[in-house]
Amino acid sequence: MSFWKIFFKNTSDMNWQTNIELENTENILLVKHLENEGQYLDIYFSIDDDINLYDLEKLCDSVGWVRRPLKKVKMAIDHSFLTICLFYKSCQKKNLIGFARVTSDNSFNATIWDVVIHPKFQGKGLGKVLMDQVIKQLRYSDISTITLFADPQVVSFYRNLGFITDPDGVKGMFWYPL
Ligand SMILES: CC(C)(COP(=O)(O)OP(=O)(O)OC[C@H]1O[C@@H](n2cnc3c(N)ncnc32)[C@H](O)[C@@H]1OP(=O)(O)O)[C@@H](O)C(=O)NCCC(=O)NCCS
C-alpha cells in the first residue's frame, strides 16, 4: 500500500473555536438530527481513551482494514495524545460510528492516525466534522505542525481540509523491517 505524507498548513485566517477544552469533553452533541436510513440521529463526540476495543475493531472491519492485535491497539490508544470517537446513542448504548487518534510530542508536532467513518454514515459530512474537531483540539494545545499518512484514494478528502503534500519539497520516508 502506498501512502502520502500530508501536512496541515496553519493558516491564520481560520477562525478556530477554542471553547472546547481538551479535558472534560465527553458526549458533546456534534450534529443534531442526522438523517440515516429514515432515522434521525443525534451524533456525539467524546475525547476519551476508554474505548471499547471490540466496537473499534468492528468499525475498522466495516471499512475493510486489516485486523490488528487488540493488545497492541490498546497500547497505541493508551499512548496516543488524543482519541476522538463519534457515536449515536440507542437504548443507553453508545454506537461507535467514527474514530480518529493522534500521537504527538505534546509541543510542536502531531500525527493523525486511524481516521474512519462507518460506511453507513459516510458522505454525510461526518469525516469533515471529525477532522475539524481533531484539528481544533490540536490548535487548542498550540500544536502547529500536523501530519498524516493518506491512502491515495483519500488524498483529496484531506486536501479539502487544508492539508498539503510535500511542502518545500519535504518527503515522507519510511523504514520497514525486511
Ligand atoms: C475518508 C472518510 C473518513 C471520509 O469520511 P466521510 O464522512 O465520508 O466524509 P465527508 O462526508 O465528511 O466528506 C467531506 C468532503 O470530502 C469529500 N470526500 C469524502 N470522501 C472522500 C474520498 N474518499 N475522496 C475524496 N473526497 C472525499 C466529500 O465529497 C466531501 O466534499 P464536499 O465538502 O465538497 O461535499 C471515510 O470515507 C472513511 O472512513 N473511509 C474509509 C477509511 C479511510 O480510508 N480512512 C482514511 C485513511 S488515510
TrEMBL record:
<dbReference type="GO" id="GO:0008080">
    <property type="term" value="F:N-acetyltransferase activity"/>
</dbReference>
<keyword id="KW-0012">Acyltransferase</keyword>
<dbReference type="Pfam" id="PF13673">
    <property type="entry name" value="Acetyltransf_10"/>
</dbReference>
<dbReference type="GO" id="GO:0005737">
    <property type="term" value="C:cytoplasm"/>
</dbReference>
<protein>
    <submittedName>
        <fullName>GCN5-like N-acetyltransferase</fullName>
    </submittedName>
</protein>
<keyword id="KW-0808">Transferase</keyword>
<dbReference type="InterPro" id="IPR016181">
    <property type="entry name" value="Acyl_CoA_acyltransferase"/>
</dbReference>
<dbReference type="InterPro" id="IPR000182">
    <property type="entry name" value="GNAT_dom"/>
</dbReference>
<dbReference type="InterPro" id="IPR045039">
    <property type="entry name" value="NSI-like"/>
</dbReference>
<feature type="domain" description="N-acetyltransferase">
    <location>
        <begin position="49"/>
        <end position="178"/>
    </location>
</feature>
<keyword id="KW-0934">Plastid</keyword>
